[in-house]
Give the backbone structure.
Amino acid sequence: MSALTAALIPVFGVIALGWLLRRTRLVRAELWGGVNRLCYQALLPALLFSTIASADYDGLQAGPFLIAVTLGFVVMAVVSLALKPLIADGPAFTSVFQGGVRWNGFVLLALAAPAFGAEGAALAALVFAPTVPLINVMCVAVLSVWGASDRAPDLKQVAWRIAANPLILGCLAGLAANLSGLFQDGVIADTIALVGRAALPLLLLAIGAGLDFSALKARPRLLALAVALKLIAAPLAFYALGLAFGVEGVALAVLVAVGATPGAAAAYVLASEMGGDARLTAGHVTATTLLAFIAMPFWIWLAGG
């Protein structure tokens, strides 16, 4: 068994356990929202801070890597927009667009350290800072134009939500600590690291609990298109950009893995709030989560990881 497969099996095993816990009602459905909020507001920012603050970025290809990964999401937005003439249904198009550009970084964070080591984990954590605001702005803009909601988005509120995003703040605080040399060891650093270690198991359980297999029947052709964008077009675009910017080794493998991650549950929330096709989005998240177990190893292998 390869190191990558050995790292993937526990990740998807915990996701499957989350689905089983909700399916059997051992954990009540209404409790999962609280788990998600706890992870998003506190545990994951602590993990990102701890990982970035303690990382040694000397010798890493952090600059070319971040340029390539940011441009990768821009390219996927352009590709998705180019498909609009083929999709007359505006709300359905917004879900296809979100399917092409949103990524589930939590799966990659859980995979990065065992598969790629400390270097890969540091790069995976770094991706959140530039991409979270970029992706949210693009998705809100598309939903504002083609979503079915009669309510105009509150741009000030959207801007505040992005600026105050706990994931972005965790990344920025980690970078500040890394550059200043503060909180890299000692009691405070150990406390933050301990809090962060609780994030990934809970997040993976919540991802599994959110899987909706009945949604796989919604708009099968559009669902297939959205899945192809996420698991074929996106990793290919990220791989090409990595080669163009001279990214190689572990950094290239992580870059391609970013492209091959499954869709994010946040897309469903945004689709529900802003008039997207929430059912199609739920199907996309479920399908890509299942198929990523095959797609991620293939693309990482292709990148030489």
